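User: My instructor asked us to take a sequence, write out its structure as tokens, and then describe one feature of it. I'm not sure where to start. Here is the sequence I was given:
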Amino acid sequence: MSTDCIFCKIVRGELSSYKVYEDDAVVAFLDINPISPGHTLVVPKRHVENILDADAETIARVFQAVQKVAKILIEKLGAKGVNVLHNAGREANQEIMHFHVHVIPRYSRDDLKFVDWWRSNIKKLDLAEIHRRITS
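Assistant: Let's start with the prediction itself. The structure tokens for your sequence are:
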């Protein structure tokens, strides 16, 4: 664990949090800057920067907990669905360099909008060239 990492401090109990779920490998707690009531962060107890640095077991344990948390939020808060989000790297807007997944409950007519990615200019790119670069 990193000594300066805010999520490691939460895991160690040095900082308080509103825990939603915990097991031997993962802890989930309410986000202090929620974009929806019940917005929860799921983090591995072991410090790893993001999904790109995590081993397969850590990723599996985190996403098993993500599913459990999603079901809890739907059952207990009456959410109608969830968005699941992970930012890997500063360029992807990762602010805390400890692997975490956002579970964002969605409610009927909540007016929460995400970026309209389907309207981006990427469709104008040559998909065959992108595919060639990925698979070569």
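For the description part of your assignment, you could build on this observation: The first strand starts at residue 19 and ends at 22. Try explaining in your own words what that tells you about the chain.
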